């Protein structure tokens, strides 16, 4: 009976290296992935969460076929690059939201109104901050933060521990994704831009017909009020767009990671 019980216990000599590699992979996600890497989450909470997940998952992933749970510089860098890759891929959604805020800030005459982003110590547009908070609220409300963690845990089957080796093709695959930031931002801001441009044309034509009309005093408030009205009317569609883009980028990251093993 004692031997049977002992045979079912994990072999910690091989599990501890696997636990270390799992810890590196999960901690990379907590450092680079949006929302999860937020400074609003205390560092101690992140550390306890990463240790708990590593302790629970390590005995399972160490037994996966193809797992190579041996510590080494390349193995640690490969595991850390998984979190980096997921983080860079998913952050493209928030970059598109920030860029859309920059575009709409110009239309609303808010081009000089910037705030300090606590997650990245740089000046960001006021509307970009608002859209970023909207994206964070959507991710948390839709449970996409849990989806990211589940997707990361599924990567241990597609890319076992100790076998991840990112090559140039995986890095180059990010370029077309990053190129989509511009088109995505234009897609989000198109209704407001169309409304404000039409308002400018209407005021310009009115100014030609009536030269005594104070065009400069009318244009800015009219554009701002009309733009905010259109923006409020279209914000109901933004969460669906954010969810769809977030899920698509998460699936793309998973597919690229599946081909980034050196096994």
General description of the model:
The protein is an all-alpha fold. The chain has one domain. It contains ten helices and two strands; from the N terminus they run H-H-H-H-E-E-H-H-H-H-H-H. The chain has a two-stranded antiparallel sheet with strand order 1-2. Strand 1 and strand 2 form a beta hairpin. Helix 4 packs across helix 5. The longest helix has 36 residues. The N terminus is likely disordered.
Write a concise synopsis of the structure shown:
This protein has 263 residues and is mainly alpha-helical. The protein has ten helices and two strands, in the order H-H-H-H-E-E-H-H-H-H-H-H. Helix 4 packs antiparallel against helix 10 (238-258) and helix 5 (126-141) crosses helix 10 (238-258).
Q: Quaternary status of these chains?
A: single chain
Question: What is the approximate shape?
Answer: elongated
Q: How do the helices and strands follow one another from N- to C-terminus?
A: HHHHEEHHHHHH
Unreliable segments (pLDDT under 50, ≥5 consecutive)? 1-7
Distance between the termini: 38 Å
Whole-number count of domains: 1
Helix content: over 70%
- What's the mean pLDDT score? 78
Structural class: mainly alpha
Q: Order of strands across the widest beta sheet?
A: 1-2
Strand segment count: 2
Describe the main β-sheet briefly. Answer: 2 strands, antiparallel
Tally of helical segments? 10
Strand content: under 5%
Task: Indicate the radius of gyration in whole angstroms.
Answer: 24 Å
């Amino acid at each position: 009976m004692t031997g049977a019980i002992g045979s079912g216990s994990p072999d910690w000599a091989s599990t501890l290296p696997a636990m270390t590699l799992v810890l590196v992979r999960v901690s990379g996600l907590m450092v680079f992935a949006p929302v999860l890497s937020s400074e609003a989450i205390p560092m101690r909470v992140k550390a306890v969460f990463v240790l708990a997940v590593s302790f629970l998952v390590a005995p399972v992933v160490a037994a996966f076929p193809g797992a190579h749970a041996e510590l080494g510089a390349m193995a640690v860098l490969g595991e850390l690059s998984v979190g980096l890759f997921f983080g860079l891929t998913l952050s493209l959604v928030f970059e598109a939201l920030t860029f859309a805020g920059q575009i709409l800030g110009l239309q609303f005459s808010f081009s000089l109104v910037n705030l300090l982003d606590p997650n990245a110590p740089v000046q960001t547009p006021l509307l970009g901050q608002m859209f970023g908070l909207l994206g964070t609220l959507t991710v948390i409300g839709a449970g996409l933060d849990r989806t990211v963690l589940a997707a990361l845990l599924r990567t241990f089957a597609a890319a076992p521990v100790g076998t991840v080796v990112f090559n140039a093709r995986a890095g180059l695959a990010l370029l077309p994704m990053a190129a989509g930031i511009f088109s995505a931002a234009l897609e989000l801001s198109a209704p407001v831009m169309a409304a404000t441009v039409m308002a400018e044309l209407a005021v310009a034509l009115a100014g030609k017909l009536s030269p005594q009309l104070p065009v400069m005093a009318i244009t800015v408030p009219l554009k701002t009020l009309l733009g905010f009205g259109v923006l409020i009317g279209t914000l109901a569609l933004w969460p669906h767009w954010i969810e769809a883009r977030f899920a698509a980028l998460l699936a793309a990251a998973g597919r690229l990671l599946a081909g980034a093993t050196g096994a």
